[in-house]
Amino acid sequence: MELEHRSHEHPLFVYEAKKGDANLSDLCQGCEKAILGSAYKCKEQQCSFSLHKKCAELPEDFKHPLHPQHALYLFINQPYPSGCICNVCREIRNKFIYHCAYCQFDCCASCASEEERKIEHKSHKHPLDLMQRPALFHCDGCGTEGKDSSYLCTDCSFWIHRNCASLPSTVKRVDHNHPLTLSYSLSHEYSKSEVKCNICAGKVRSPYWVYRCAKCKYFAHVKCATSKTEPARK
Questions:
Q1: In this structure, is the dihedral angle defined by the CA atoms of residues 208, 212, 214 and 217, taken in order, positive or negative?
Q2: By its UniProt entry, which InterPro entries does this protein fall under (predicted)?
């Protein structure tokens, strides 16, 4: 199946990005998140343009509950010279944006997606609700505290960053030979020993999430593994 999309000059073909295939460089050009699930990819071999299927099929306009007075219109090329801050999640966005020219209200592609307002996440047994405003909290995923967009379990107060909820199941780093797999806690064999992050050299604390190598004793905080930070010198 081919698609002509106004955001790109070449035809796109549909494919399925399976868990474990994700690479830090494979980002959706709509929502700027890792490509997982149904997606479109450029047919040109030398072009890496990709879009989630849901981002490729976003409506041209919609009304957000935080801005009911006017419709928001989809801009493929941003109406600002250097990106903008989404008024829903408060994160800086550089790709697709829904924009109100009257009020300068902006909503990113992720926040516009209905299916992201309530999710099932394999790290937790209950559904998680997207918080409509950034909140100051301690993340049960990465273990850090800050004021960010988030998902909350209303049954048991499990709370994670929105970015943590969309972490890829595997990442590849240039400073390690093997792919790193996301684990939602340290395995029992390491739970009572001191484990250090091989990137920042800080302590990896249970029960927070960690990227680890299945072939060797390599561990990394989720924020370290998904950044371009070079390993600390020993």
A1: negative
A2: C1-like_sf (IPR046349), DC1 (IPR004146), Vacuole_Formation_Reg (IPR053192), Znf_PHD (IPR001965)
Answer with the one of 14, 35, 56 that is the final residue of a domain: 56
Please state, in angstroms and rounded to a whole number, the distance separating the CA atoms of residues 206 and 225. 17
Its domain, for residue 83, covers: 62-112
Phi-psi label, residue 55: left if phi above 0, alpha if psi -120 to 50, beta otherwise? alpha
pLDDT (tens digit per residue) in 70-112: 999 999 988 888 889 998 888 889 999 999 999 999 999 988 8
The percentage of residues in the chain with a pLDDT greater than 90, rounded to a whole number, is 40
**Cβ contact 30:109 at 8 Å:** yes
Q: Which amino acid is at 82?
A: S
Residues 129 and 144 in one domain: yes
Q: Are the beta carbons of 219 and 187 closer than 8 angstroms?
A: no
Structure tokens, 143: 């273990």
